[in-house]
Structure formats: structure tokens, C-alpha cells
Amino acid sequence: MTGTQISYYFICHRKLWLFVNQIDMEQTSDIVSIGKFISESTYEREKHEIHISDEEDDIVIDFYDSKNRIIHEVKKSDKMEETHIWQVKFYISVLEKKGIIGVTGEIDYPKLRQKIKVELTDKDRSELKLIKENIIKIISSEVAPDVINKSFCKKCSYYELCYV
């Protein structure tokens, strides 16, 4: 499971299915490019992106403050805040699985000059288990889920696949 899959689960099940089935449109998206630039320029280059992978999960953390045990995830906008929160909760759960206890998260919105604290509760752990089960069901399907037709679809990198 990846952080992107968790994120797409909350945004759009169709986007999740397309992404997992290697239909990747993000390389053509200006919005994604801007987000990557913000993320890459927020922290020192040598401390940027920590990749953790095992047989079950594969994550890339924007920045990890090991002294204070804080995961930092950098985002361009807070429009999809719930998605960002669950992505960080997922990252915390992966670190816990690796034996790193007491980790919290922080979502940094440099453009907005805001930070959101994130913690993982027992209820969240149970919910993450259900989310992961639902993701497996979605990505295992033979066909893509239906188009959701939300206002944010117009800015999605997959827009043309869904509407044109």
C-alpha cells in the first residue's frame, strides 16, 4: 500500500483504480508539478524524502524529524485536508509497524503558512485497516469505478480520461 493509494481512496476511487493499473496522468499536470516544487523547496535537499518499503507497504515521507519523531508532509493547499491527514496517519502506522513508537505528524502548507498536527489513535488504526481492505477491493476490480463528477474533477490530471 502506498500513501498515494490512501490519498486517492479519499479523493476518487476511479483515480485510485486508474493509477494502480498504471494509467498515470500526473506527469502532464501543472498542478502536480507546482506541488512537487513546493515540497522539494521546503526542506533542505539532503533531508528530503525518506523511502520505506517492505512486502506490504511502500511510502515516501517528505521529511522526518527523528529527534522529535515528527513526520512532515508538505502540501500546496488545504483543500483536500482530510486526505492529507489520512495519508499522514497511514505513514505513522507504517513507522509503528517498523517499531518506531511515539511518532506524530505535521502537515505543512508553506504557501498558506499553516501547519496541522496529526496523531494516530486506536480508532484510526481500526479505520485504516478497513480503508486498506476497501482499497484492495477497488484495485482488484476488473473495471474502473464510475466517474464521481465533483467540482474538483476539472483540475484532476485524469479529467480527460473521465470526461473527454
UniProtKB/TrEMBL annotation:
EC number of this enzyme: 3.1.12.1
Signal peptide extent: none
Highest taxon, organism lineage: Bacteria
Alphabetized Gene3D superfamilies for the sequence: 3.90.320.10
GO MF: exonuclease activity; iron-sulfur cluster binding; metal ion binding
DUF83 domain: residues covered: 2-163
Cofactor(s) annotated in UniProt: Mg(2+); Mn(2+); iron-sulfur cluster
Gene Ontology biological process terms, A to Z: defense response to virus
UniProt keyword Transport, yes or no: no
Textual note on the cofactor: Mg(2+) or Mn(2+) required for ssDNA cleavage activity.
Entry keyword annotation includes Phosphoprotein: no
A Pfam family per the record: Cas_Cas4
Keywords linked to the UniProt accession: Antiviral defense, Exonuclease, Hydrolase, Iron, Iron-sulfur, Manganese, Metal-binding, Nuclease
Function as written in the Swiss-Prot or TrEMBL entry: CRISPR (clustered regularly interspaced short palindromic repeat) is an adaptive immune system that provides protection against mobile genetic elements (viruses, transposable elements and conjugative plasmids). CRISPR clusters contain sequences complementary to antecedent mobile elements and target invading nucleic acids. CRISPR clusters are transcribed and processed into CRISPR RNA (crRNA).
Family of this protein: Belongs to the CRISPR-associated exonuclease Cas4 family.
Protein's UniProt name: CRISPR-associated exonuclease Cas4
Organism: Stygiobacter electus
